Amino acid sequence: MLSDREQRELALIEEELSSDRHLVALLERRRRRRWLRRVVNPRAAVVFGVLVILAALVLNLDLTFVQGLLVAGAGVVWWSWEGWASEQARAPGRRRT
Fold first, then answer.
1. Could you count the other beta carbons within 10 Å of the beta carbon of residue 12?
2. pLDDT (tens digit, 0 to 9) for every residue of the chain, 97 residues total?
């Protein structure tokens, strides 16, 4: 159990943290990103693009083949960007711009 003084100090810290708009915005952004990553991730885009390419090859559909290439390419770029962004976030002493 916390003493009265410790409870007051903890309440003051919680109030200051909840009033920090920058911190709240950062946490909200991270929560939204996690939801997006659960729904769609870059590997799924690459796999879907490859499946579209294979279907286009089997069915001899030229435009669908190009669409599959675009989806797979976008997935590869997204996957690379996520890896780069996470590496930048882990680098000590560097700020992302």
1. 10
2. 788 998 898 888 888 777 777 777 777 766 655 555 555 688 888 999 999 999 999 999 999 999 999 999 999 998 888 777 777 777 666 555 5
- What's the burial of 67, exposed, middle or buried (CB within 10 Å: 0-12/13-18/19+)? middle
Residues 6+ apart with CB under 8 A from 13: none
Q: Is the pTM of this model over 0.85?
A: no
- Cβ 64 vs Cβ 51: under 8 Å: no
- Residue located via tokens 């996470």: 86
